[in-house]
Write a structure and sequence with these properties.
This protein is mainly alpha-helical. The protein has one domain. Helices cover 84% and strands 0% of the residues. The protein is built from 18 helices and no strands. Helix 2 packs antiparallel against helix 12. It starts with a helix and ends in a 13-residue tail after the last helix.
């Protein structure tokens, strides 16, 4: 009651708040849905080809997944600064952050490109020991690796645009990319329109072409339409020391956090990968279902970081507290809706895909686990990615993920799989326990308000 009265005393127009929030959430949810659609297209089409092909593409995709975590760390670190400088009205400093972020992204993606081309077999063996799955994954990596740098440029630029509330451009870019990818997937995988049937190599080629389309669209937008935040070559090559220090101060914990979280997810995949191709195939479908069910929730967490960051940059700290409370309520609602969608999708998923009976049994269990997992994930991501990072509290997420994933869920799952030789469903429940463990910890951190800080400088711009 006291908090409600305090919110009312601030004179906040909650109608305008929800309008502004959903103006951010809806385009970003569509972007997340479109990005998941690319993965789903591969899963559905390759699932029609065969289980080994589907598993090979899924596990090869883990290399790109880990790379995107580095990129997400970089862009999230940039968002901490960009959103607050946007609230402050300092566009010149945002342009410098853009140049710095692009330089870091190009370096990271170039390293992953070289690794995927030079040692694809070794990378695949991290996730599976099945020689057929490894052979299919190598085919995929040797083509899709050439898309990594383009992907890094696109993701960094569009995330910076999101931070300054330019969210529609990313929706358009990713929508056109999805259409391109789906059409070319069908053509190259199954050999339509006179093309030879390429299987997994066709999926990789379609992805490569779609990524180059994305970066071409980004360059076109930057050159022809963006009048607020411009790309400047000088800022790509050189950045002020103080700004670079701020960037990496907030970006490095996020990068390490995302990488450790991603490696944890990859470790989950590797554990299941060594329990048979049926477990891998079922998990690849379950992960797509999770991504589809959380597109709005993850859009909400990103909107939270932008909206609160801008508010903090405007030095409206009490308003930021009130907004944060509303974001957390929304996260629970979105998570519950996502969980219900997953439960409803069980019969459709088992009927649509060509999977073994064992894989279908695993899939039903995994969907059940995901139905409650996504509620915790929605709440925790809004806390960690949205609320905490909006004020520069980036180190806490690192400590949280390392402790709950590596010291709890992964350790218990590993022991269940390889020491106690438990069944795949039991192992999966153990591996997916981290989001539930996080709930009381993130709530405690939120109530202490250590995340509520203005991190902008007065001597930049």
């Amino acid at each position: 009651m006291f908090l409600q009265k305090k919110e009312n005393s601030l004179g906040i127009d909650w109608g305008a708040f929800y309008k502004g929030v959903f103006a951010l959430v809806i385009p970003m949810a569509l972007q997340n849905l479109i990005n998941v659609g690319v993965t789903a297209a591969d899963v559905i089409m390759l699932g029609r080809v065969g289980e080994k092909v589907l598993s090979g593409a899924s596990l090869a995709g883990q290399v790109q997944y880990i790379m995107t975590l580095f990129l997400f760390g970089l862009t999230s670190g940039a968002t901490v600064l960009t959103a607050q400088y946007w609230g402050k009205g300092d566009k010149n400093t945002i342009e410098k952050i853009l140049g710095l972020g692009l330089r870091a992204a190009i370096l990271v993606t170039a390293i992953f490109t070289v690794a995927a081309l030079a040692i694809p077999g070794q990378l695949m063996r991290i996730f599976t020991s099945d020689p057929e799955v490894i052979a299919e994954g190598i085919k995929y990596l040797r083509i899709v690796a050439f898309s990594y740098v383009a992907m890094g440029i696109t993701q960094t630029y569009l995330y910076i645009m999101r931070s300054v509330e330019r969210v529609v451009v990313a929706t358009v870019v990713y929508l056109l990319s999805l259409i391109c990818n789906v059409i070319l997937n069908a053509v190259f995988i199954f050999g339509l329109l006179g093309f030879p049937a390429m299987g997994i190599m066709g999926a990789a080629l379609a992805t490569l072409i779609a990524r180059f389309l994305e970066v071409a669209l980004v360059f076109g937008y930057a050159r022809l339409f963006n009048r607020d935040i411009k790309f400047r070559m000088g800022y790509l090559l050189c950045t002020e020391k103080l700004l670079a220090q701020d960037f990496f101060r907030y970006a490095i914990p996020v990068i390490v956090n995302e990488v450790m979280w991603g490696l944890g997810t990859a470790a989950n995949t590797a554990i299941l990968g060594h329990m048979g191709s049926a477990a891998v195939a079922a998990n690849s479908v379950a992960q797509v279902a999770r991504q589809l069910a959380t597109v709005v929730a993850f859009g909400l967490s990103s909107a939270t970081a932008i909206y609160l960051g801008k508010t903090i940059g405007e030095r409206k700290l009490e308003e930021a507290k009130a907004y944060a409370k509303r974001f957390l309520v929304l996260s629970i609602v979105m998570g519950a809706i996502g969980g219900a969608i997953i439960l409803a999708a069980i019969p459709m998923a088992t009927a649509a895909l060509t999977l073994t009976s064992a894989a279908k049994e695993y899939l039903a269990v995994m969907f059940g686990v995901m139905s409650y997992f996504v509620i915790g994930q929605s709440y925790n991501s809004t806390m960690v990615v949205g609320v905490f990072r909006s004020g520069g509290d980036t180190r806490f997420g690192l400590l949280l993920d390392v402790s709950t994933m590596w010291c709890c869920s992964i350790l218990i799952g590993f022991l269940a799989a390889f020491v106690f030789h438990c069944s795949v469903p039991v192992v999966y429940v153990c591996l997916m326990s981290d989001e539930i463990i996080k709930l009381p910890i993130t709530t405690w951190r939120y109530t202490r308000y250590k995340w509520l800080k203005n991190v902008t400088r007065e001597n930049l711009g």
